[in-house]
Amino acid sequence: MTHHDGIPRRGFLAGAGLAGAAGLAPAASADPRPPLGPRDLSGDELLLVPDAVLLPDGIAADHAVLVAGGRFADIGPTERITAAHPGKTPLRLPGHLLMPGFVDAHHHLTQSFGKAQAFGQPSEIFKQIWEPLEHTLDEHSAYVAAKLAALEALRGGFTTVADAGTRAPVDTGVLAAATRDAGIRCVLGKVCSDGTGGPEHLARFEHTPLVHPSLAIPVPEDATDDVLARTAALCEEAGAVFQIHVNEHLAAVERSLKSVGRRPMQHLGHLGALGPRTLCAHATLLTPDEMRLVAGTGTALSYNPVASAWKGNAVAHAAMWAAMGIRFGTGTDGTRGDGFRLADAAETAQRLAFGLHTGDSACGAGQLWLDHATTRGADALGLGGITGAVAAGQAADFLLVDLAVPELTPSWDLPWELVRLAGRDQITAVVVDGRLRLWRGWPTDWDGPALVRQATEVGRDVVRRAPLKRVDPTP
After folding, report:
1. Listing from the earlier edge strand, what are the strands of the sheet with 211-217?
2. Is residue 462 part of a domain?
3. Distance (Å, whole) CA 274 – CA 381
4. Which of 160, 290, 346, 468 fits as disulfide partner to 185, beta carbons 3.0 to 4.6 Å?
């Protein structure tokens, strides 16, 4: 039996829900699949045969994936792949989708202790909440905060996060250690608003596994025009990403108009600071001319829909970006580390902010938001040749997602269903660089619950000491 998404449904999927429909009690063992455990994914070489694979051109059935040396070594029809590698035993994964890990194109790893402190607050809360919180961190608490954020991200299916640079008075090596120890890939930003430390940071982590160095200036007004231009040029020369928040809040746009006579995005363009290696976060307040500027320079954006809902002035017109060919990925902004909920928010925000007014009932459809949450998100971070897709030669950063759940039964259009119906509780395994990192939500080689307990104590102490300034604080 094959539905129009191209996936042949095996018995347990095609017949799911039939017993309930007939009014019969479920069997003692309702899942006929053979037991699967973390040891099955512990080898250096794996020949995986899931029910479906999310490839760059869509969902494919009857495909096998060979993982070797931390990379996808071979991908193709099961019969061909198994015949080409006769010495390897196929690991059957019935009821599972193998898909690329989610890419978080915008995160703040050292803000994990204070997420709820931002709820109900006006825009530009970085001045009242995030800066005081991060300034209170020391090396130990910054490490715990970053590792906690990395664990939450992994649990939500993210295999890559882009940290936009911390204001904590700690060495960036602390964050590198936290993400490395957690097992997540990280684009690691260093704030260099004063114009110093950039080359050293890029050279220091150039060859560090799972760490991709990046330079960051929080907002254009934090640095001089010369520093903005030089930082962007330095990243372009080094093949690194220059991260900056642009056109996020109305107050910042108006300050820029009053101080330099241009909106922030226009000013970066005037300075020559836009280009393929510049990643502008949020960009919720772009004029048509600014969108054309971004598209023409090849600049990448991060679309952060949950941040718009929680603390923003507007929703970025990401559907328009897609139509204009603007490069962008989706980002959490450190709100919640759940890849499926982020994809849902990305589509929902477009539907509510723009689709309802124009009668656009699809707003790009499911596949568009999956693409920007994975493959196109990696491209926005300058990692398009490294991660973000199940493709030969790329890093084996992937998820095994359980499809045999009530929410996806019966399945008719899997990309749409993954965006609107799937959840992180369906993620059986998270693999980064070919190595199993999480199994059913928890690390396999370090103590996740112990970190949570530690973060509870450390985080409460940090928030108690931080001079936070909440508007209408709640108990």
Report:
1. 102-107, 158-163, 185-191, 211-217, 241-246, 278-282, 300-303, 327-330
2. no
3. 14
4. 160
pLDDT at 10 over 50: no
What 3-state DSSP class applies to 7? coil
Same domain for 199 and 65?
Answer: no
Range of the domain at 69: 1-11+40-100+398-432
The verdict on 293 and 426 lying in the same domain is no
Dihedral over alpha carbons 218, 278, 150, 373 (to 10 degrees):
130
Mean pLDDT for the chain overall: 91
Instruction: Write out the H or E segment, with its range, that includes residue 375.
Output: helix 375-380
Q: What is the DSSP string of 215-266?
A: EEESSGGGS-HHHHHHHHHHHHHHT-EEEEEES-SHHHHHHHHHHHSS-HHH
| CA angle (403, 406, 409) in 5-degree steps | 70
Do 151 and 269 belong to one domain? yes
If 0-12 CB within 10 Å is exposed, 13-18 middle and 19+ buried, where does residue 39 land? Answer: exposed
> Are 227 and 179 part of one and the same domain?
yes
C-alpha neighbours within 13 Å on the C-beta side of residue 399: 33
> For residues 455 and 143, what is the distance between their CA atoms, to the nearest angstrom?
10
Same domain? For 371 and 407 the reply is: no
Tokens of 3: 């539905």
Q: How far is CA 89 from the centre of its chain?
A: 32
How far is the C-alpha of 406 from the C-alpha of 18, rounded, in Å? Answer: 11
| C-beta separation of 279 from 300 below 8 A | yes
pLDDT in tens, 331-349: 999 999 999 999 999 999 9
Only one residue has tokens 């039964």, namely 409
Q: Report the pLDDT averaged over residues 114-142.
A: 85
* Continuous segment of H or E residues that includes residue 181: helix 172-182
Counting the structural domains of the chain, the total is: 2
Asked whether residue 111 is assigned to any structural domain, the reply reads yes
180-225: pLDDT as tens digits: 999 999 999 999 999 999 999 999 999 999 999 999 999 999 999 9
Classify strands 102-107 and 71-77 as parallel, antiparallel or unpaired. Answer: unpaired
Dist CA 346 CA 305 (whole Å) = 6
- 53 with 165, same domain: the answer is no
- The amino acid at 370: L
Residue with tokens 């190595």: 435
For residue 10, which amino acid is it? R
